[in-house]
Write a structure and sequence with these properties.
8 strands, alpha/beta, single chain, 39% helix, eight-stranded mixed beta sheet, 2-enoyl-CoA Hydratase, Chain A, domain 1
Length: 331
């Protein structure tokens, strides 16, 4: 949509005024900014028609001509694929945010990341990019917005994008740093169970190559949903900073060791002791790797090289789903 000149609504401002007595302009009701940030109906809000046309051209460059073709691939000459800058992105404090786009830009071919739905559900980042000339779709949690949690809108946004990539044979790359699903009455009353299941379903049913990189937190059900090995991901990598557990150490210690903490003469000291014990066990990716849920723990600088090899290996992947009329996605 083009800002200030294009509008979409089922009923216009005059009808709204008559029926609900609301005074609203066309721009506020169904303009580009409204649909790009509030409703999520539009994926790109452009300043003018020229920018809109350029965006369409760029979007089409990542897509095959039809759903039977393979994703486009440009000529690429391999060189030094090491990216040392990635080693310093994750903050030492596990509660400190960072911008996942710096990770994406550090891994994909130079300046090829084309973000979709940029202003909607900003706690998840989706878009197209290229790795070694190969067109891919990127889905990534965004720790700098709501700590990267999954909520109703981000689940719908991610699911829609995953389904689109699967429709057009575009491989999927997932960057995971998710502390869980957003708690609260607002989320539960707006069906986070059903909407979160949309993202789970979309990943589970996708037959394109699916690769995940866990950069930091991977907690609970949200870890499962974000293209884990448990729902059929092809390759799962983790950085040494990854924490794969049911929840964070503080909350887990309070629940698992509640009796010991309550019986202790110094509850705070006991709590910290148990928190440290849990962190030593699970605030790393090695237990998950030992059980086969992580294929390899890699240094951040190796990420691009490993992903190039993974997508090359999966180039001819064939997945046959059970015969049925159609699946029943949780709409």
């Amino acid at each position: 949509m083009v800002e200030h000149t294009s509008y979409m609504f089922v009923t216009g401002p005059n009808v709204v005024k008559t029926v609900t007595n609301e005074d609203v302009t066309s721009e506020a009701l169904g303009g580009a900014e409204t649909h790009a940030s509030k409703s999520g109906v539009t994926h790109f809000a452009c300043a003018n028609e020229v920018e809109a046309i350029e965006n369409v051209k760029r979007l089409l460059s990542f897509m095959p001509s039809n759903c039977e073709d393979e994703a486009p691939r440009l000529a690429y000459e391999k060189g030094n694929e090491s990216r040392p800058d990635l080693n310093t992105i994750i903050p030492e404090n596990p509660n400190q945010p960072y911008d996942i786009r710096t990770v994406i830009d550090g891994v994909v071919d130079g300046e090829t990341f084309f973000e979709v739905h940029k202003d909607y559900a900003e706690n998840i980042v989706v878009g197209f990019a290229r790795i070694a000339g190969r067109s891919i779709g990127v889905v990534a949690n965004q720790p700098s917005v709501l700590a990267g949690v999954l909520d109703v809108n981000s689940s719908k946004k991610g699911a829609r994008f995953v389904r689109f990539c699967d429709c057009f044979n575009i491989p999927l790359l997932v960057f995971e740093d998710v502390p869980g699903f957003l708690p609260g009455t607002d989320q539960e009353w707006n069906a986070i169970i059903t909407n979160g299941a949309k993202l789970l379903y979309a990943f589970s049913e996708a037959t394109v190559p699916r690769v995940t990189v866990i950069t930091r937190k991977a907690y609970g059900g949200a870890y499962d949903v974000m293209n884990s090995k448990h729902i059929g991901a092809d390759m799962n990598f983790a950085w040494p900073t990854a924490e794969i557990a049911v929840m964070g150490a503080k909350g887990a210690a309070e629940i698992i060791f509640k009796k010991e903490i309550n019986e202790s003469s110094d509850r705070d000291a006991k709590w910290k002791e148990k928190e440290q014990e849990y962190a030593e066990l699970f605030a790393n990716p090695y237990n998950a790797a030992a059980r086969g849920y992580i294929d390899e723990v890699i240094r951040p600088e190796q990420t691009r090289e490993k992903l190039i090899r993974a997508f090359e290996m999966l180039e001819n992947k064939v997945a046959n789903l059970p015969r049925k009329k159609h699946g029943n996605i949780p709409l």
